[in-house]
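Sample A.
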Amino acid sequence: MIKIAITGLGNCASSLIQGLEYYKKVDGNSPPVPGLMHNVIGGYKLRDIKVVAAFDVDKRKVGKDVAEAVFSPPNCTKKFSDVPKIGVKVQKGPVLDGIAETTKDFFLVDPSQKPVDVKKAIQESGAEILINYLPVGSEQAVRFYAQEALDAGVAFINCMPVFIASDGPWAKRFEDAGLPCIGDDIKSQVGATITHRTLVKMFADRGVKIERTYQLNVGGNTDFMNMLERQRLKSKKLSKTEAVQSNLPERLPADKIHIGPSDYVPWLNDNKIAFIRIEGRKFGDIPIVLDCRLDVEDSPNSAGIVVDAIRCAKLALERKTGGALISASAYFMKHPIQQFPDDTAREMVEEFIAGKRER
């Protein structure tokens, strides 16, 4: 069994918890199951993952069973699985900077609900891994939970673009504690970042000189509403831009590459639409332009990666491997401590799963 705690019971957590129920009957890696990169990792199936603690700040979720909370407003991702009660109630975490000016009317906080002692709650639950799903720009809150993970003696999976696993001093703290961390900023199963990375690498591998590129994203969930507060986007834009720049043979000047959230469209709900454009020159210096439109449900796209990250973190715990996991972070995250091409990162993950030491 793999016991996990989650902070932030939003759409991504909803898709993850629905998925644990949806795929609970999957056994063995053959045949491949649609939606999963690995049916089994290190002997662990999805039904082996158990939520034992959860933290949120919204009064519509605090105090409810996790199975009920993940369908509570303002969550809006698609329901693809019924989730029976799991007997774990959502506990109140500290707000800190977790709520933006643009979302203060959508996340409802009851001042009479006092935050719990997070470290104590994690330890009493028996959790082994803490998963961070806090909103973009929650710099103080993410660092708070990273420290609570260290103090509680659990692994940390940072799905958001606040730099922990990719920050040298933070990674060293996890290494010294003998605790694995995977991060930062989840790279979705088939999302805008992985698609953009793949396309620019193809251009470069085929001898095309890339001159300009952009990626614009719109969506209707609270993540996009949160990102309307532009000062919260510094690390998000850096994470997404670096993920693409790292796949280019020569970095593009800052004024020739634009990657980041564009706008909030309420009626899209958890649907995300990405517009990617690449301009370059091919044989004979002849111009070439590629325009791509990607339309995805945002949160299940994240959950398809997190189920593998959880199991890799569990293997690292069993092997007493502390610090940032280079292979898992490079394959699962946009802003790892060390970037690799995706095909190389995938090979590294397979080697790690097979028991080989990290590079």
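Sample B.
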Amino acid sequence: MRLPRDAKGLFDPEQTKPLIDMYMDAGFSYFDTAYVYSNSEETLRKALIERYPREKFQLATKYSPWHGVHEVCQNIEEVEHQLQQSLTRTGAGYFDFYLLHNLGEDRTEVCDNLNVWDWVQEQKRKGLIKHAGFSFHSSAEQLEKILNDHPEMEFVQLQINYADWENISVQSRACYEVAHRHGVPIIVMEPVKGGLLSSPPKSVENILRETNPDVSYASWAIRFAAGLDGVMLVLSGMSTLEQVKDNISYIDAFCPLSENEHKVILKAQEEFNKISLIPCTSCLYCVNECPQNISIAGSFTALNNLSQYHNLAYAKALEFLHTSGTGRQRASACIQCGRCERVCPQSIEIRKELQRVCEKIINA
């Protein structure tokens, strides 16, 4: 998802090759892509699969419950088509890990309605995939239900980082604890929060630099995630040779955070908590009432991200992901009816906050 891009904005195989070579030479072998990651699958074919023996690497890709910006998969034939397309794009022959992508809310319903759960087990029997799991972006309660209903899932991929550990929307700690209690191996995604924790808020930078000025800010984030019990591996999206080199420097001979370093992370988390955020828990009561089908929780996630990191480009991308990327409407579609506010358990002034989303993100 974060491979280097060319002038047209597409992933570039030639720029990617040196990154892969450095990574492989250091003894690492796991690569994560997805059906919906632009031309990522084709890029990996050219930069990795055509250049290395198949047994030398492990490849993960994902089935997406939606096959277009506004369209969910309608039948199992469309699900099958995605797998065959991924196999064609990569030329990998099979996938070591195959994920049901971004489950939670209506994405889980698609998998339930089409019985994708049984279908993915059939693909294992055919030898097209070796291990089946899912990635997840929703509440701990929903994760609990999936793991109770589908104990056959072999792993779960969760957004875990120290900044989101107690975030009421992401529920990083709560989701981790659910998966760990079930004994399901955890793959960590977004350990550096899309790169934002490589340049955290100034108050957090000061805390980390005062403790150890000689290590990268990203190293704190990845070591936090990698040191958690039950974590199988940590995915770090890398775009440059410098990032690959930095990650290798503290993972190759991995040392978990010490007791004192955990105290430092706690101070950093306290600084994040001082930033005023919309107290949205993503319960989605508001969305169920909204006649405009606005992605209210997703819009608030983007605005909270902007408040924390002051990165407008990232906030805009996040807002698009949670609105157009899921088939829901943007904050600008609000008709000020107020039905959302009548059911909000957090008593959020939703209409006012949606206007802030328009002012600070959509129209900025």
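B remarks: The longest helix spans residues 259-274. The CA atoms of residues 24 and 52 lie 10 Å apart.
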